[in-house]
Amino acid sequence: MAAYRIVFANEKGGSGKSTTAVHTAVALAARGRRVAAIDLDTRQRTLGRYLENRAALMKRDGVDLPLPVHETFDPAAGHSIESRMDALAADADILVIDTPGRDDDHVRVAISTADTLVTPINDSFVDLDLIGQVDPDSYKIRRPSFYAELVWDARKARGKRDGATVDWVVLRNRLQHLEARNMRRVAAALAELSKRVGFRVIPGLSERVVYRELFPKGLTLLDLGAIGQDAGMAHVAARGELRELIAGLQLPDPESGRARAA
Ligand SMILES: Nc1ncnc2c1ncn2[C@@H]1O[C@H](COP(=O)(O)OP(=O)(O)O)[C@@H](O)[C@H]1O
Ligand SMILES: [Mg+2]
């Protein structure tokens, strides 16, 4: 049975694709799912390097951590991305696909094979502008933007090919609870847009320095206990957020095969 595919994509860099992709992959692996991950961002290679750092730490310190099978797509190797994604999907329950923050053919191919498409946005109208344009006075949605159209096209292509639907999830990343008014406005605009364009909104990770510090060791929040670091109250709260993020994805449960949860 082919793996369920979760694609992290947003045409904007720095919105948290790689951070949320790694945390999702590791969280699912920690639950015993067979997870594979592929990094299509052949320039920045954040997800690939993150997981390489993780493998190196496991070896160096002799710790056993959940580690997804992973590779960074190498355009020079002469394979198509379809064939690499299929190869990884063959031996996994879930394939996590991280993409570069730009529009290119690879990203479009990846989106058109997604079962779930996750678009992280920073909680600001700058990021929201890619999906929909907002009226400056009323903060109401004027019209969907080009990224919504790109996803629309990819969904249509998918429907034509195998009749399947793409569950599009907009994930609000780097939430800053001190900015309650901004959070409410963005939430209202997203709610309106979600009905027009057809996505779901789920909460992502709060703004925390720890997410920027974990990369060199390849660690996620879930690992701090395992390597003997004090978890602390902030980390307990952050792990709760990650659990909610995974729940929000509404992945099919392992027994029911590939069909999406209702
Ligand atoms: N919730 C968060 N809190 C703090 N920093 C974050 C958070 N999510 C991402 N970052 C940081 O923001 C930057 C961009 O994130 P990244 O996941 O690389 O985005 P993308 O893959 O979309 O370009 C990185 O420095 C990352 O550590
Ligand atoms: Mg990235």
Task: Characterize the structure shown.
The protein has 262 residues and is an alpha/beta fold. 42% of the residues lie in helices and 17% in strands. The protein has helices at 17-30, 46-61, 81-90, 105-112, 125-128, 146-162, 180-197, 210-213, 232-249; strands at 4-8, 35-39, 69-72, 94-98, 116-122, 132-134, 141-144, 167-173, 200-203. Helix 2 (46-61) links the parallel strand 2 (35-39) and strand 3. It binds adenosine-5'-diphosphate and magnesium ion (MG). Magnesium ion binds next to helix 1.
Short summary of the structure?
Helix content is 42%, strand content 17%. By secondary structure, the protein is α/β, with parallel strands linked by helices. Helix 1 packs across helix 2, helix 1 crosses helix 9 and helix 4 crosses helix 6.
Secondary structure blueprint with pairings:
Elements lengths: L3 E5 L8 H14 L4 E5 L6 H16 L7 E4 L8 H10 L3 E5 L6 H8 L3 E7 L2 H4 L3 E3 L6 E4 L1 H17 L4 E7 L6 H18 L2 E4 L6 H4 L18 H18 L13
Helix pairs in contact: 1-2, 1-9, 4-6
This protein binds adenosine-5'-diphosphate and magnesium ion.
Adenosine-5'-diphosphate binds next to helix 1 and helix 8.
